[in-house]
């Protein structure tokens, strides 16, 4: 039996006991959000009697495709986060509350596309087909270790290579860089790939207007008429799989109470002068211009490849949700191996009692933390369920682009958050420590502790789900509840 992550494999092994051998496709300490499968992974899936994924876009689509295309026909292939709701799991929205002082702009696919034959292994292609403006546009992703990945780049002319793909119901973040101030019109075209060698299905085309370094309220949108100006909050250039339309999809409060999206041709996106950035002295970023040159850039904000949906996929940070996973795994193993039914029922019953004790332990420990000290500042937005279930609060901050020095404003905001909330500690996930240099430096400057929380994976100090959650409870109590 295979599972995508160490956490899922551990839960499944506890249910299966001696009748199963559960292993994780993502290696120890790996990041399930970005892990790329190997041919050996495909062979492991092909030999598995049962496959468990978390999904809700936790895993990259390349891993999901590897599983769905190699899992033996007729064997259980269960997406736990979706299916566990019928066992009492509680899901919450993924709230991204990063306080940028400019618009946070990404890409999104909405709708299911079922009438077009779309599945979870389908993909939507978004291609930049035309750009009008005084300079060049580059929309690029900065990966975890600072490597840029260009999605749309007009500096060498737009062509088929200026495209990217997203799974259904997914969203991602990008940097949007403009080489000169002025008015730009960017045309995007969508197409659906349902796989199987079938031709791409055309979706819609839309033209978005950017006001770069000029007053956006004086700029006419591509379709004419009255413009909807977007200048703060979180917005995505979006293709709808069901209607084929391209829109700007945003928080309703940012656009107007009556709507959460605006047709592409009616949008003006503000790229103000406070979005000015300096091209880094790094040859990897030469496509932006000469080192030291000034560009206007809407930042990616979240470090690394960050494709996700609208629901937070980290359900296991609430022990009650882990219990739902265990019950679903029990019934799945019984369906695949009826002869082991009693073993699976006994194992799961024992484990569920242990998880009840764990839930009580976490709740009791965190209840000792004074209410005004229950603030979480972390390297990764993975703890919404922990906060929701156990009375904590998530305090957001900007993760800067590793190719550039963080702006004074970004460091100031993070410092103010720590200072104003009187946060006694910040938290780093062990497997993401390399991403935490700014967080740890600001913590040092503010004389607060740097502590550890486990989110997606184990290490040598926590090698099971129970050990991980007990550590998290102990660490939160030690770092937030104790005075120095």
From TrEMBL:
InterPro entries: ABC_LPXTG_lipo_actinobac, AdhesinB, Bact_metal-bind_prot9, Surface-anchored_actinobac, ZnuA-like
Biological processes per GO annotation: cell adhesion; metal ion transport
Keyword Cell wall biogenesis/degradation included in the entry's annotation: no
Keywords: Metal-binding, Signal, Transport
GO cellular component: cell envelope
Keyword hit for Transcription regulation: no
Stored SUPFAM superfamilies: Helical backbone' metal receptor
Subcellular localization, as worded in the UniProt entry: Cell envelope
Gene Ontology MF, one: metal ion binding
NCBIfam families per record: anch_rpt_subst, choice_anch_M, P_ac_wall_RPT
Protein name in UniProt: Anchored repeat ABC transporter substrate-binding protein
């Amino acid at each position: 039996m295979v599972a995508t992550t160490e956490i899922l494999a551990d839960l499944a092994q506890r249910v299966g006991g001696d009748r199963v051998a559960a292993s994780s496709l993502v290696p120890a300490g790996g990041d399930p959000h970005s892990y790329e499968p190997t041919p050996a992974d495909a062979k492991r899936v092909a030999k598995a009697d049962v496959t468990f994924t978390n999904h809700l876009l936790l895993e990259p689509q390349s891993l999901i495709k590897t599983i769905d295309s190699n899992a033996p026909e007729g064997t259980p292939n269960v997406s736990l986060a979706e299916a566990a709701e019928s066992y009492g799991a509680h899901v919450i929205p993924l709230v991204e509350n990063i306080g940028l002082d400019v618009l946070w702009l990404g890409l999104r696919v909405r709708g299911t596309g079922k009438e077009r034959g779309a599945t979870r292994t389908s993909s939507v292609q978004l291609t930049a087909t035309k750009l009008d403006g005084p300079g060049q546009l580059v929309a690029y992703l900065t990966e975890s270790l600072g490597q840029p990945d260009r999605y749309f780049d007009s500096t060498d002319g737009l062509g088929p290579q200026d495209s990217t793909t997203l799974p259904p119901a997914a969203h991602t973040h990008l940097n949007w860089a403009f080489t000169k101030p002025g008015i730009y019109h960017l045309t995007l075209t969508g197409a659906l790939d349902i796989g199987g060698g079938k031709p791409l299905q055309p979706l819609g085309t839309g033209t978005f207007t950017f006001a770069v370094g000029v007053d956006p309220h004086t700029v006419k949108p591509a379709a004419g008429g009255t413009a909807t100006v977007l200048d703060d909050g979180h917005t995505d250039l979006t293709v709808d799989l069901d209607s084929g339309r391209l829109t700007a999809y945003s928080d309703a409060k940012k656009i107007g109470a009556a709507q959460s999206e605006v047709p592409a041709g009616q949008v003006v996106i503000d790229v103000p002068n406070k979005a000015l950035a300096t091209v880094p002295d790094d040859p990897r970023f030469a496509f932006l211009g000469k080192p030291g040159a000034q560009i206007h850039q809407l930042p990616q904000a979240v470090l690394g490849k960050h494709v996700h949906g609208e629901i937070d996929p980290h359900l296991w940070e609430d022990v009650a949700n882990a219990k739902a996973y265990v019950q679903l795994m029990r019934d799945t193993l019984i369906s695949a191996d009826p002869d082991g039914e009693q073993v699976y029922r006994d194992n799961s019953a024992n484990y569920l009692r242990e998880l009840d004790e764990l839930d009580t332990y976490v709740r009791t420990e965190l209840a000792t933390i004074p209410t005004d000290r229950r603030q979480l500042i972390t390297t990764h937005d993975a703890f919404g369920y922990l906060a929701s279930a156990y009375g904590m609060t998530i305090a957001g901050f900007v993760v800067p682009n590793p190719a550039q020095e963080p702006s004074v404003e970004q460091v100031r905001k993070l410092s103010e958050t720590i200072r104003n909330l009187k946060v006694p500690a910040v938290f780093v996930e062990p497997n993401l420590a390399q991403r935490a240099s700014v967080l740890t430096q600001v913590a040092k400057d503010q004389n607060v502790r740097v502590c550890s929380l486990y989110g997606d994976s184990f290490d040598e100090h926590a090698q099971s789900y129970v050990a991980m959650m007990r550590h998290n409870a102990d660490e939160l109590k030690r770092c937030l509840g104790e005075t120095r």
